[in-house]
Design the sequence.
């Protein structure tokens, strides 16, 4: 178990990390996700030992490690640009860590070739690393780190330099390697899709703080802050305030004529938020929770009237853009799966439409300082 | 077909045309004189400094006289000590320059280069005055009561060493800086991450990757330092004979041009040997 306790890191006046605490369980694929400059790489480098926290401590297996130098921590890192040694060949690169630990040469030989076959590079042993493609260098970098059997493998945006297809292929390989070895992986990325696909748990970071830690599903379905909601996937936002409450619902008074109803999710994983009447809040709905209708539905559904602005066919789904009637805010995005049912309903641009969703499918969050649309 | 075939040749012609002035220069002022030196080295000194072309290897055998070998070894020693001193003192400077902010880089670069705007004889005299019995260093030392009698710095091995290092250290710093500036410092993090100590990170990762700059710097210092005689003359009091003095003397005083030629060729061979070592090392790196 790795525990980061109240870690801050400042560079002069700039705060890279502000009082970050997080616990990472053994054997997890844990992602640090956030936009560039959010502090995710700084946090990874503090865990690796390349940087010291200005405040706070890091514990591993209940032992304090933030004062242990990087070369004495049993963690290994896969660097963003791989940082392979250009003067050594593939085998020598992979063997480097074992040789530093004075491992007997027969064992080095065996472990290196095992690792190279695991990353499917066994035929490249004597090749110079500068002659390899990006994907191959990536595999060597992974082998060079994993051959040391690290207690934690740290990955600093290792896939960002690869093209899309190779990246997806490497994601699958990374995941299968992690499942097989059951090492803890700490993975830094700015790609939310990558984080959702790979991780057991994700920490979403913003401006040096961790905004939310949870499973990919929790992060996507029940974001705790507007930042998280907006950063992961796309989401439609309306500004307004809390209206009257009932036993199992809250109302949201927005720009529309009729207040919207919010209910707890059916599985209970997201309870009804407890806001006082009059609190400034944002109402958020994911595009795939929305339905587009030609006529207004019944009052048990929330409905927003608007004009259809654009239809984008994207293969598995179609994205529809609607300008809500009562607001000057940004257009709403609706994504519909392309099925026989949706194909039957043809909408024309400029047509008057109704966007509707269930009270369980929307979120109510305190208004973000960063400003919101709607 | 003809047009396709002739085009690369035409382009090659043009490139040769551009290189021609330098090639003529090289031929006329380096290769031909060098050939003349080789011819002279095989001749013998006649009476009153005349030259008899009798194609003997006698001059080369004369070099192996212990007197001349000692002079040659002394020059080698001076060049080696200078090169190593420049390396040890210059490496930290190059390292700081390569890792400094762009602004500090410029300032440090200027500090390394500006002394070169002065003639080296003037620089040597400046050191002489600094180190003289009542020069700046002695005056300051006595003023601060660090010592009471003037310390005899001038015309010593120390002042020669100081002059040589002052003269040649930029030739070490600049190539080292070029290598270090291109060096990806995450390599050192990678090495530490893989459990390497500072010692191993330095020797197994940094040094192999800046080898080109290191060897270039050593050659840039060693080669001219081997033939240097002005600095030792000015700062060492012209007490010791070096290969540079010896060669000058053969041409200017003793008027033994054949022997002077043979000595010059020895110097060139010594440099060529070190260059060969350099080039084979560089080739082995490219092969990786």
Sequence:
């Amino acid at each position: 178990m790795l525990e980061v306790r109240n870690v801050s890191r400042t560079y002069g006046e700039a705060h890279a990390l502000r009082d970050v605490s997080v616990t990472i369980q053994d054997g997890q694929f844990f992602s640090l996700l956030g936009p560039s400059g959010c502090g995710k790489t700084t946090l990874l480098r503090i865990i690796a030992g390349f940087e010291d926290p200005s405040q706070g401590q890091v514990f591993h297996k209940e032992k304090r490690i933030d004062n242990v130098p990087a070369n004495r921590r049993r963690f290994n890192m896969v660097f963003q640009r791989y940082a392979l040694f250009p003067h050594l060949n593939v085998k020598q690169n992979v063997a480097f860590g074992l040789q530093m630990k004075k491992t007997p040469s027969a064992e080095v030989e065996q472990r290196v070739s095992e690792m190279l076959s695991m990353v499917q590079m066994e035929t490249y042993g004597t090749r110079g690393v500068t002659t390899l493609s990006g994907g191959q260098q990536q595999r060597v970098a992974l082998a060079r780190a994993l051959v040391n059997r690290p207690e934690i493998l740290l990955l600093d945006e290792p896939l960002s330099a690869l093209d899309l297809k190779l990246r997806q292929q490497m994601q699958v390989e990374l995941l299968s390697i992690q499942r097989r070895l059951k090492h803890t992986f700490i993975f830094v990325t700015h790609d939310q899709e990558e984080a959702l696909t790979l991780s057991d748990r994700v920490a979403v970071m913003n401006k040096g703080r961790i905004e939310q830690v949870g499973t990919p599903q929790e992060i996507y379905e029940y974001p705790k802050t507007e930042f998280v909601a907006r950063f992961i996937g796309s989401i439609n936002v309306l500004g307004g305030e809390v209206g009257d409450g009932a036993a199992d619902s809250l109302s949201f008074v927005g720009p529309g004529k009729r207040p919207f109803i919010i209910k707890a999710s059916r599985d209970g994983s997201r309870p009804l938020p407890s806001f006082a009447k009059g609190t400034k809040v944002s109402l958020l709905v994911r595009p795939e929770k929305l339905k587009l209708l030609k006529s207004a539905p019944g009052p048990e559904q929330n409905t927003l009237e608007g004009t259809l602005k654009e239809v984008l066919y994207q293969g598995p789904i179609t994205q529809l853009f609607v300008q809500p009637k009562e607001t000057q805010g940004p257009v709403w995005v609706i994504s519909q799966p392309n099925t026989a049912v949706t194909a039957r309903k043809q909408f024309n641009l400029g047509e008057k439409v109704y966007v509707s969703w269930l009270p369980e499918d929307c979120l109510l969050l305190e208004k973000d300082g960063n400003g919101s649309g709607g | 077909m003809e047009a396709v075939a002739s085009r690369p040749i035409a382009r090659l012609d043009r490139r040769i045309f551009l290189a021609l002035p330098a090639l003529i220069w090289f031929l006329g002022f380096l290769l031909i004189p060098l050939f003349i030196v080789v011819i002279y080295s095989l001749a013998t000194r006649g009476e009153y400094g005349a030259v008899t072309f009798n194609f003997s290897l006698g001059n080369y055998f004369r070099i192996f006289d212990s007197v001349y070998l000692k002079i040659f070894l002394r020059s080698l020693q001076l060049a080696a000590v200078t090169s190593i001193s420049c390396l040890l003192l210059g490496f930290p400077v190059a390292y700081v320059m390569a890792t400094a902010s762009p602004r500090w880089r410029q300032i440090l670069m200027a500090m390394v280069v500006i002394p070169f705007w002065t003639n080296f004889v003037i620089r040597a005299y400046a050191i002489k005055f600094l180190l003289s019995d009542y020069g700046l260093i002695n005056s300051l030392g006595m003023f601060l009561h660090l010592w009471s009698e003037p310390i005899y710095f001038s015309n010593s091995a120390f002042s020669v060493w100081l002059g040589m290092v002052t003269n040649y250290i930029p030739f070490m710093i600049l190539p080292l800086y070029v290598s270090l500036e291109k060096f990806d410092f995450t390599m050192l993090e990678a090495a530490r991450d893989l459990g390497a100590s500072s010692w191993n990170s330095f020797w197994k990762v940094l040094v192999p990757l800046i080898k080109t700059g290191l060897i270039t710097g050593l050659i840039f210092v060693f080669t001219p330092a081997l033939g240097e005689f002005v600095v030792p003359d000015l700062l060492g009091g012209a007490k010791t004979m070096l290969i540079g003095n010896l060669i000058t003397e053969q041409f200017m005083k003793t008027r033994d041009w054949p022997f002077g030629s043979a000595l010059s060729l020895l110097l060139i061979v010594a440099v060529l040997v070190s260059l060969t070592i350099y080039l084979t090392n560089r080739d082995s790196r490219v092969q990786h």
Summary: Chain A has two domains: 2-227, 228-366. Chain A has nine helices and 20 strands. The mean pLDDT of chain A is 90.
